[in-house]
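Teaching note: in complex prediction, the entire set of molecules is handled at once rather than each chain in isolation. The prompt given to students was simply: 'Predict the structure of this complex.' The entities are:
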Amino acid sequence: MSENKFSELKNDRFLRALQRQPVDMTPVWMMRQAGRYLPEYRATRAKAGDFMSVCKNAELACEVTLQPLERYELDAAILFSDILTIPDAMGLGLYFETGEGPKFKKTVRTEADVLALPQPDVAVDLDYVMNAVTTIRSALGGRVPLIGFSGSPWTLATYMVEGGSSKDFRTLKRMMYQQPEVLHLLLDKLAVCVTNYLNEQIRSGAQAVQIFDTWGGALSTPAYEAFSLQYMRKIVSGLIKEHDGRKVPSIVFTKNGAQWIEQIADCGADCVGLDWTVEIGDIRQRIGDKVALQGNMDPSALYGSEATIRAEVKRVLDGFGDGDGHVFNLGHGIHLDVPPENAKIFVDAVHELSAR
Amino acid sequence: MSENKFSELKNDRFLRALQRQPVDMTPVWMMRQAGRYLPEYRATRAKAGDFMSVCKNAELACEVTLQPLERYELDAAILFSDILTIPDAMGLGLYFETGEGPKFKKTVRTEADVLALPQPDVAVDLDYVMNAVTTIRSALGGRVPLIGFSGSPWTLATYMVEGGSSKDFRTLKRMMYQQPEVLHLLLDKLAVCVTNYLNEQIRSGAQAVQIFDTWGGALSTPAYEAFSLQYMRKIVSGLIKEHDGRKVPSIVFTKNGAQWIEQIADCGADCVGLDWTVEIGDIRQRIGDKVALQGNMDPSALYGSEATIRAEVKRVLDGFGDGDGHVFNLGHGIHLDVPPENAKIFVDAVHELSAR
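The expected output is the structure of the full assembly:
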């Protein structure tokens, strides 16, 4: 597969900012920008039946990926998919119960469970993801770059071991403190798979990739290094760095992880995502211009008035300050009950208030 | 009420450490030390019927408060109660649904709701708490000091506005960004009540007090100052500082709040609690010896072997380093499925490994 089959990229603000190159205005996208806050998304999902049916159908995944781009001047699109496709491909049986989040039919709790997990052939077993990537990239026609993504090994492990969402990861933590070697075996397997998965997304058309470490912030400092960051470092070092003549930047995002920002900034990724609980200016002071920073407005600020939203955008822009390497985003996914018009105020404010 | 009615304090390690005075060994207690991991607690609770019936009966509250002291060489007892007694006294109707955590029959979402909230007379409306404090203090016979506590205004507001537990506090955050003045009205009312509540606990026999800000870490930096820390500062400044000739130290604990440690250390409290996601040594470097530090072992480390638990205890002790002002604790409440014998290993290890 060659880059030539896709249209030339017209808006490279996002890719430039990830590489800390000058831009005319700060690029912006929103985590979960294709989602339930949009009535057109809810319509597609209703048509498909459920969430995973949208993910598994390239045309529908493409449709919802493009929906927010029709409304807002976003600088990137992100593949519509779920972070739990990998454990599903490993045979755990992903399903969703209304109001309860993701669940697995099978859990992974013993050494035998880990050893029995197959290493998926990502091009085959996750072909629906790759089809979606290629379909979306083609449909984008070069408007903005397409972001591929995966959950981090630690974050995937939380769901695989607990069997679903969890408040304090007691089963996984028990494994971590009782049988760390079993957990390492699992994380190692996952790191290999995530690397293959992201590289296959890149070969299929993804122009940047993000690793979501949603639950790394639940760890102590040495445990974060040993059980989460170490594996993300391995993944990043195994990523395709250039594809069809263009650099493919990577983003690592550990929610509640800013206490480890120096170590994360050294993991090899081009950009580090920040949640809204830290000041982006403080973080930049701590790590300098080693990596680009992505974030970090409180998603709940989108409940506010136009004046409130604009003031929050300005606060984050001013916090980052002058210089290159800022990708504007929310500090977490957009809430499902945000009025769509507020997202427009947000995106427009980022561009207007950051225009060089 | 006079101190004279109570026995003289035999073990003042905890109170001394809170004031950064020398101790023979590091004092230790565990958040939620009276709780479901103990079979004797489960027996008392079964006898009482439910959780709030234990809280509201001074004899039973005393019984469960003392249970962990019978098993472990703890250096403090903590009042058995709930952080939501104040909103309950304000008429919101606290109840517990099995497996779902606390709920309120009424919520607080409008200015009218806030204005309608009565300011409780804590000595009368929360007399069951004060009776429990006095009963426990008497029963302790001076063995160890008794800690009183309250939720922080922000943390109480999360439950009052959401009507129970919440993942991302969307209703409260909407209020914060849309009607900050209404939220301030609520927080102000709560701050007055928490101050009165803690002072009445002190008059009733509490020898130190802790403010639990469980959900302050969900805020952005300016919002944390405006909506959580500001009110804790007001409370601390209004606390009785000495009672019957002895200093009454205060502890402030914001989970996931270490990014604001400098500001928290300046709030007037004697001690700052830390969760397990930060290194206590790094924190001490940042703030020096301005306040005592409480924490901060991962509660999940208690799932480990004796060797693992002892190694974690040593790591935290070494992290704090030499000098005074360390109260050892878990970084959050002990998990309900920890084997009771592991808590003994933990408590004994703190004393043994820290003996001067």
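Point out the following to students. Chain A touches chain B at residues 168-170, 173-174, 176-178, 217-224, 256, 258-259, 276-279, 282, 298, 300-301, 303-305, 308, 315, 331-332, 335, 337 (CB under 8 Å). The CA atoms of residues 191 and 234 of chain A lie 7 Å apart.
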